[in-house]
Amino acid sequence: MSIRCRLRISCLAAVIVSSAVPGAAATAAESPTLSAAQQLFYNGRYADAAAAAADLCTATVEGLAACEVRSTAILLQLRRAIGDAPDRDKAFKQCTECSGLFATFVADIRQAQGIARAHLKTNPDADDVRFFLGKLDLNYVWLQLGTLGRKTGWDEYWEARNSLDAVLKKNPGNVRAKVARAWIDYIVDTKMPRMTKWMLGGGNKKRGLQAAREAADAETDLFIRAEAVFALWDMQVRERNIPDAVKTARRLAADFPDNPEVRKFLNEHAAASAAAP
């Protein structure tokens, strides 16, 4: 598997995972068990992270944070298993673990989406729940459109985009929503054909990069900051901005020294790493 593919596996969190924002869904995120799952996730141990979050991913509003962590970890297990195979459908069918992971992923996502949507009908100002709905939607989109290359997930895409925009309209300083929205701007602008880009509401690579930089420099919780810094690193690698990517990777290594992708990247760019201030 190429280093760029491994970086996408580690960083998408395009998409992806951190601790809960304050509000009704915060209880589960404060649990030491979920903190352990987050630590495992950011050190690249996705199967262990999914297992650690399993019992907390319940059919309740309080379980949404754990369901996000768990679904993200499973998403990246699938991405890692399929790799950068040119025929992703064939690779999926040949993968012995993928069908089971996919079924678990979809079941968790559908359950959590249903809980979030039902809660928002009676509590439309629950911005933490609206945020989680958007993030769960994006996990589904990244799996279907990105990892598996299937042309489905359009409804989830628009629900995610509208949900995150609504959260940011009320609180522009919401770091997690800012990072998730930055990924939409970046991916739509850099990966989608012009007509598809228009159908998806447009994107803006520069705006996405700027939002990721601002989020990465925000004073916030360890895992919220990690999500932002991983996003910035991934974008810098995609832009082939190796000097800045090395600096960002060194920030990540300080907090997550066991992450194999971070270590590999720094080892492969040892000269640039040594020269970085």
Rounded to the nearest angstrom, the radius of gyration is 17 Å
> Could you give the order of the helices and strands?
HHHHHHHHHHHHHHHH
CATH 4th-level superfamily: Tetratricopeptide repeat domain
**Which CATH C-level class is it?**
Mainly Alpha
What composes the largest sheet? none
How would you describe the oligomerization state of the chains in this entry?
single chain
Strand content: under 5%
Query: Please, what is the average pLDDT?
Result: 88
The total beta strand count reads 0
Poorly predicted ranges: 1-11, 18-30
SS content category: mainly alpha
**CATH fold-level name:** Serine Threonine Protein Phosphatase 5, Tetratricopeptide repeat
Helical residue percent?
A: over 70%
Number of domains: 1
CATH architecture: Alpha Horseshoe
Would you kindly provide a written description of the structure presented here, covering whatever features stand out?
The protein is mainly α. It has one domain (3-275): Serine Threonine Protein Phosphatase 5, Tetratricopeptide repeat, CATH 1.25.40. Helix content is 73%, strand content 0%. The chain is built from 16 helices and no strands. Helix 1 (3-11) packs antiparallel against helix 13 (222-238) and helix 5 runs parallel beside helix 8 (127-147). The radius of gyration is 17 Å and the shape is globular.
